Amino acid sequence: MSNTGGPSAGEPDDTMRERGTTSRAKLRALLDADRRVVAAAPLVVVFGSVVVLGQLDSTPLRVAVESSDPIETLAQGLLTAIITGVTLVVTINQLVLSRELGPLGDQRDRMEGSMRFREDVADLLDAPVAPPEPSAFLRALAEGIASRARAVEDTLDAGGNGDAGESDDATASDADSDPTTRVREFAREVESNAEAVAGRLEGRQFGTFAVLSAALDLNYSWKIYQAARLRRVHDADLSAETKTALSELRDALELFGPAREHVKTLYFRWELVDLSRTMFYAAVPALVASIGAILFLDDPTTITGATLGVSNLLLTVAFVVAVSIAPFAVLASAVLRISTVAKRTLSIGPFVLRSETREDDLDWES
């Protein structure tokens, strides 16, 4: 398999949405959509489904209630599920968050590791200290990567590299296989990707998904592999300055990896805290609705009449069901985003886990 199209042929796209086979609409719902909307959507579907099924049933709900107790049975099941489910989820969340607690020695080791990493980033940025805010920190790293990519281009412009493919009669294929051309295209791709990510991070506040979303679109793992491959395969064709610049670019990309993973971890913990709190808030009306159904809806004469041809009793039961499952809709909306991000960032470093993100014409050896 020959990579005749230059460094861009057959390689994964930069943005996370373009690297997978999942449709953009689905990814937008899983990642970018407001979690309140994502949580409300299944509630609307459940409410509508209960109403439609109740209308299609040959035995009206009021008649069924007179002969048995389907509403009370349903409400009791929902009540049990709410208490058990919310308690279990919140307990698991607290166990995850409890990893933040620990003896003084562990906390000191974490602090020292964090400070060493920040010093490495400050050295990379040639700044006294690295920015303290997560979005500014990632943005500074992305700008540092773009700067080092430009430095690679500058060494190529300065000359001293192999000039195959530079003659007037060179074919397009020769130009594509020319080390200088391949390194230049790689540097431009990195610069463009890093500048786009830095622009999206500007002014963003941590706690929103926008910060992590922008960071996920810098395909650093693949670019680490590209930098190492170009550096080794074309070692004899590149000048010492270009090889040094490529190594420095790779160092910058390697720093972005753990920085992004750290911000991702912080965001997940932030989301778990919000999830626990929101589930408690949603559990209160859910408990009230299910308990109220047990106490007051056992008598079919409690609610009479109809609205737009639909029994008010049926509408009330559908509302009770929708409100009762609200805590689980909240849980699902958060888990969908977290699991989607986690699946696409399982590895750290130059590993490509999703084979569908690249084409078969990629030459791993050149």
UniProtKB/TrEMBL annotation:
Acidic residues compositional bias, start-end: 165-177
Segments crossing the lipid bilayer: 37-56, 76-97, 279-297, 317-336
Pfam families recorded: DUF7972
KW Transmembrane helix (keyword) present: yes
Disordered: annotated segments: 1-21, 156-181
UniProt keyword list: Membrane, Transmembrane, Transmembrane helix
Full protein name: Uncharacterized protein
Species assigned in the record: Haloferax volcanii (strain ATCC 29605 / DSM 3757 / JCM 8879 / NBRC 14742 / NCIMB 2012 / VKM B-1768 / DS2) (Halobacterium volcanii)
Phylogenetic classification of the source organism: Archaea, Methanobacteriati, Methanobacteriota, Stenosarchaea group, Halobacteria
